[in-house]
Design a protein that fits this description.
With 373 residues, the chain is an alpha/beta fold. It contains ten helices and eleven strands. Helix 1 crosses helix 6, helix 5 crosses helix 7 and helix 6 packs across helix 7. The two termini are 40 Å apart.
Length: 373
């Protein structure tokens, strides 16, 4: 049972389709106040936060989404991980994006172009999320991550293997306090092997896997695709794996660890090209805009665009999800959050923290709240 100090209230976490029932966390003592720390913070407290049935639309309600009431704790940044969690958010999941106080996700600074002060790169893959700014190197910050994991369904991270374990946030650590958790790791080269400690980069994985070797003009040099296809493919594999993990937990009542990595994802995407070599020793070549098996070949687009009103960038438009569904609409998306925009809301609504405890965390720098003007 996880002891959640700093003024957290006790509550029950109910069972349901996505989570097996488990005991509630115990209450701790309140902490000293830090006057004025919450001034200007935008927060709307909610009741409960961990129960699977709470907040779900009643049976027969219109536009019910597959992941309504499922909570995703998202420690990923840049592209593959955020792309995967964005899709989960499109399907109704509550995505809690954990960011560094101040800087936030690396891609917040990637530009131009910028929409106002916001990076368009960041805006493109972070809709339908809430942001909490936590310093995980602070012991209180790491404790908050563990508390959030205890009331979440899925934990997604894309750190170099072993990095989170050093902070007490690895799979084995989280499993002890949240045995129900579907813990998904995204890395460059997997959890074992000679390259395990190397960072994962789309262009390097595209080269090592052979994707660049088969891309470009027939008599030209290997080239990188126009978008980070290896990252995006890994994000899609991650999304599917998490969905499978949730179904597996529903069947067994137990959580699990999912290993996704750039190299494996891209090699899998070589499909018939890889099979040609493995089975017939036929080495692939570059064909320009032609296709090695079917010429001519036509790459298709659905033209879906989503528009949202961002608190600082104003009206923005980003590519929408690549899948449509007959029984519900992926509509009315929420704009990508500012760094720490929902810190107070999450601490209150999801963990049950009192104002004085939140004020202390804000004062000590363990968390940060963005003031929306």
């Amino acid at each position: 049972m996880l002891r959640a100090g700093l003024g957290r209230r006790s509550r029950l976490c109910g069972g349901g389709l996505w989570r097996s029932p488990r005991p509630a966390a115990a209450s701790g003592s309140a902490s000293p106040r830090c006057p004025g720390a919450l001034s200007g913070a935008s927060a709307s407290p909610r009741n409960g936060g961990g129960a699977r049935g709470e907040g779900a639309p009643p049976a027969g309600a219109s536009n019910v989404k597959p992941l309504d009431a499922v909570k995703i704790l998202d420690l990923t940044r840049v592209l593959a991980g955020p792309f995967a969690t964005m899709i989960l958010g499109d399907l109704g999941a509550e995505v809690i994006k954990v960011e560094r106080p101040g800087a936030g996700d690396d891609t917040r600074a990637w530009g131009p172009p910028f929409a106002g002060t916001e990076s368009v790169y960041f805006l493109s893959v972070n809709r339908n999320k809430k942001s909490i700014a936590i310093n995980m190197k602070d012991s209180k910050g790491a404790k908050l991550i563990r508390e959030l994991a205890a009331v979440s369904d899925v934990f997604v991270e894309n750190y170099v293997p072993g990095k989170l374990a050093e902070m007490g946030l690895g799979y084995e650590d989280i499993k002890k306090i949240a045995p129900h958790i579907v813990y998904c790791s995204i890395t460059g080269y997997g959890q074992t092997g000679p390259m395990v400690q190397r960072g994962g980069y789309d262009s390097i994985a595209a080269a090592v896997s052979g994707l660049m070797h088969i891309t470009g003009h027939e008599d030209g040099e290997p080239v990188r695709p126009g978008v980070a296809m290896t990252d995006l493919a890994t994000g899609l594999y991650t999304y599917g794996a998490i969905m499978a993990g949730l179904l597996q937990r529903h069947k067994t009542g137990k959580g699990l660890h999912i290993d996704c990595n750039l190299l494996s994802s891209q090699v899998a995407c070589l499909t018939h090209v890889a099979a040609n070599y493995l089975n017939c020793k036929i080495e692939a070549k570059r064909w320009g805009t032609a296709h090695g098996s079917i010429v001519p070949y036509q790459v298709l687009h659905n033209g879906l665009v989503m528009e949202m009103n961002h608190p600082t960038a104003g009206k923005i438009a980003v590519p929408g999800p690549g899948v449509r569904y007959s029984e519900f609409a992926v509509s009315h998306p929420k704009p990508p959050p500012l760094v720490g925009q929902h810190t107070v809301e999450i601490l209150k609504g999801m963990l049950g923290y009192e104002d004085d405890a939140i004020e202390e965390l804000l004062c000590t720098g363990a968390v940060a709240q963005h003031e929306v003007r």
